[in-house]
Sequence to fold (339 residues):
Amino acid sequence: MRVVVTGSGGMLGSGLVRRLRADGHQVHGVDMRPVDDPDHTVADIRDRAALKAALTGADAVVHTAAALPSYPEDEIRSVIVEGTRTVLTAARDSGVRRVVHISSTAVYGLPTVVPTTEEYPREPTDAYGRAKASAEEICESFRADGLCVPILRPKTFVGAGRMGLFAMLFEWAEEGRHFPVLGRGDVRIQMCAMEDLLDCVVVVLTTDAETANDTFNVAANRFGTLREDFQAVLDAAGHRRRVRSIPAQPALYALELLRRARLSPVYGRLLHKLLGDSYVSTEKARQRLGFEPRLSNQEALLRAFDWWRQRPDDGDRQAGRTSREPWSQGVLRAAKVFF
Fold:
């Protein structure tokens, strides 16, 4: 197939480009950032004319481009909602038969039922979740008009190339520091290995349209508590450090104040998510697609940590703009002296 990948300069998009080319597909990337790839268009996904030109002759699109929760609210909505509308419109006008949309379990908000199934109502609690929910509604309207639009809802995906807030865990572990968790750390927080997400994208790209044209959670089947999963990284670092509990409510209050003052990259929904179990059902993907995730939380984290230790470090710290750069820890960097 000829497949167009939006957000091809990002962690997921670039991994998907490599994977699809390895599988023998012709892949064209679209991203605002230039990349060292001749089969690439530098364009904003909200630019309909540029998108239509890039999609000419494509069989399918995988829409991975998005804004992160740390972006300003108006930018989040513009990129995610209007960007998705533009991609789908350009795909329809260019005769593309299938658009795989990468959504997020953030559309569930803070669900009160676990494991959370795809039938759980969309109850987003922040700007990012609301934008993702609105983008899904747009996808469903194009689906109703006859376009095949598989929607994948991954949990936070982890793998080689993942930085963002995970770089904070990796850095503290490598430096031989203990690592804090809110409360006892006994909540079960499910993640998703990037390799498994790529596998699932390939499945919905290549299976028959009637089966693929649905909405699916994508996440690890094997995961422990946050304490257990983070401790695996500290153990791999080899410094005999431990996950340390800090009082949840005072820490939550302090982190929220720091976030509002732009002194911490930890966004609001993440803070509240860490206080309770957060995992989804993957049964629908297993039954409908025959898809089984291969990696556990710990395996995904350890692969990402191995990659992080071997990468060249240019010392750059971004303000949460992408998941491929280590985010600025703000005042949290000073807190390391206590661990």
About this structure: The chain has twelve helices and eleven strands.
